[in-house]
Design brief:
heterodimer; A: mainly alpha; MetI-like fold; B: alpha/beta; Rossmann fold; 6-stranded mixed sheet; 4-stranded antiparallel sheet
Chain lengths: ~280, ~260
């Protein structure tokens, strides 16, 4: 075959692939934004009101419990996961342990990353059963922290690894200790580290399977760490299972809120990476 | 050559690189070397002969690489820097290293210079201001950057960045400056500025420079060390070294007959 024909065939295949992916992204986001938007515009109170006792049976109320539940669950869990992951990522750098060992640990984290989230949920559920407790906000936080930890570790590790060795050597030769050097490389790697934290957060935000057993997933507002709480993905699952058309409609509103939150997270991640890149790349002003 | 004129004394230094699957290689073999105080010493030799390895052994930078094994002693003044009881960062403070390419720290110009003094406990603003101004003046950078000290250091040109790295190394008041082919990434004009800077700095510091540009070594050095396949072949003051080399290999290398590796 002529190599120019080959080239054009591959170009067509690439364009088609891009088109397919773009098309379904637009369709998914579009349907949720339009349908959810209509529900919210017709009845804005959906977002601001707590659900009534029979909300999922077609009763009155809104989805505020799930929005707040998501926020109260995701933010603390991300903070916990970030602190732990940062320490692990520093430990994985050559300065502390042998390369060979850190490469093995990296494989472990890659495997953890690939474990389906329902298994994390069942793991925590088992602990809850053994300790004779019920699903609660606190258990949900722990589950989500476990869920996002491997993702954040690998992102932070890659970001720290991509810091040029010269930066490390410069800091060392000025007399910095390993910890002071680590802080310097962290500053260099900050765009990647923030991206990792926000991607972990996005994963936790959108995950239903891990919290469906552990957080209680009830209909009440989150009232405390040991009390039941719900989250947006769980609520969407429940609403979409409903027999009542009005409840199923509300699932679109919940999806709309979820998509908006995820888009905001992504935008924040991009903006903050740009901001910190000014110290690492010459062109940034 | 009186012993007290010597700042750095290297005794029986052997460096091996150990890789799991490859054969261990013996990078530096029985190095015995004296480097004079407040002079500019050049280490020359073909690439791959261990110049940079030798240089990094003078501030224990090999400690952060797990595959390198160092045996022997390096004395700076009277102090054995491989003494395990000394904190390694105290030793590195005495020995500044300037790398081949400038690596400004991810901060603004001011903080780049103030980084070192801050590490060693100087936190007063006025004191830091003095150090920053002084170091930038010594590297002839002050006039160029005094109005934009708060800008990211990466916004400077590469020649300015290299001078910034020198200023940063001076800020911790080292005794020795190690320069690893510091002009190789620069254009001729920037290199010339750096060269004249080195000539002024050698009055106060012991400078050890790795160079594979023979003309540069001839122009700048007071003392020359010729390294070949991990061995010191010949050392001597620049004039006699270049004019009447004793060893045949040195003669060949200087006249360009000897190929690299």
């Amino acid at each position: 075959m002529n190599k120019y024909i080959k080239e054009s065939i591959f170009k067509v295949l690439m364009v088609i692939s891009v088109f397919i992916v773009m098309a379904y992204i637009v369709i998914i986001i579009g349907i949720n934004v339009v349908k959810g938007g209509i529900v919210i515009i017709n009845n804005p109170s959906v977002v601001f009101t707590a659900p009534g006792p029979k909300y999922l049976l077609g009763g009155e109320g809104g989805i505020l419990h799930a929005i707040l539940g998501s926020v109260f669950m995701v933010i603390p869990s991300t903070c916990i996961a970030c602190v732990v992951s940062y320490l692990i990522a520093l430990f994985l750098q050559v300065d502390y342990i042998k390369n060979n060992f850190s490469n093995k640990l990296r494989v472990v984290f890659d495997v953890l990353w690939g474990i389906p989230s329902i298994l994390y949920g069942i793991f925590i559920l088992n602990i809850l059963i053994v300790t004779n407790r019920r699903g609660s906000l606190g258990a949900g936080i722990i589950t989500l922290a476990l869920l996002q930890m491997p993702v954040i570790v690998r992102y932070m590790d890659e970001a720290l690894n991509s810091v040029p060795n010269g930066i490390r050597e410069s800091a060392y030769s000025l007399g910095a200790t390993r910890l002071e050097t680590a802080f310097t490389t962290t500053k260099y790697a900050l765009p990647g580290i923030i991206a990792g934290a926000l991607i972990g957060m996005g994963r936790a935000m959108g995950d239903a399977a891990s919290v469906i057993f552990t957080s209680g997933a009830g209909n009440s507002m989150p009232k405390g760490l040991s009390k039941s709480a719900s989250s947006l993905p769980v609520l969407i699952f429940q609403q979409a299972n409903s027999f009542y058309p009005s409840v199923r409609e509300h699932a679109y509103a919940a999806s709309f809120v979820l998509i908006v939150i995820v888009i905001i997270l992504n935008t924040v991640s991009r903006i903050s990476s740009k901001h910190f890149q000014k110290y690492t790349s010459g062109s940034g002003k | 050559m009186l012993n007290k004129d010597m700042e750095i004394r290297i005794r029986d230094l052997n460096i091996y690189s150990m890789y799991k699957n490859k054969k261990n290689s013996h990078i530096l073999k029985n190095i015995n070397l004296d480097i004079p105080k407040n002079r500019l010493t050049s280490i020359i030799g073909p690439s791959g002969c261990g110049k940079t390895t030798l240089l990094k052994s003078i501030n224990r930078l090999h400690d952060i690489q797990e595959n390198i094994k160092v045996e022997g002693h390096v004395f700076i003044g009277d102090e054995d820097i491989y003494n395990p009881r000394r904190q390694v960062n105290e030793i590195r403070k005495m020995v500044g290293l300037i790398a081949q390419r400038p690596y400004p720290l991810p901060a603004n110009i001011y903080d780049n210079i103030a980084f070192g003094p801050r590490l060693h406990g100087k936190r007063k603003k006025s004191e830091l201001d003095d150090i920053v101004e002084n170091c930038l003046k010594r590297t002839y950078l002050w006039e160029e950057v005094k109005d934009r000290l708060k800008e990211p250091a990466v916004a400077l040109s590469i020649g300015q960045q290299q001078r910034l790295c020198i200023a940063r190394a001076l800020a911790v008041e080292p005794e020795v400056l190690l320069c690893d082919e510091i002009t190789s990434a620069l254009d001729p004009i920037s290199s010339e500025k750096i060269e004249s800077l080195l000539l002024t700095l050698r009055q106060d510091y012991t400078i050890v420079m790795v160079s594979h540009v023979l003309r540069q070594a001839r122009r700048l050095s007071d003392y020359v060390v010729f390294l070949y396949f991990g061995e010191v072949v010949e050392t001597g003051y620049a004039k006699e070294f270049f004019e009447s080399p004793k060893d045949q290999r040195t003669k060949n290398y200087i006249s360009g007959i000897m190929p690299g590796l």
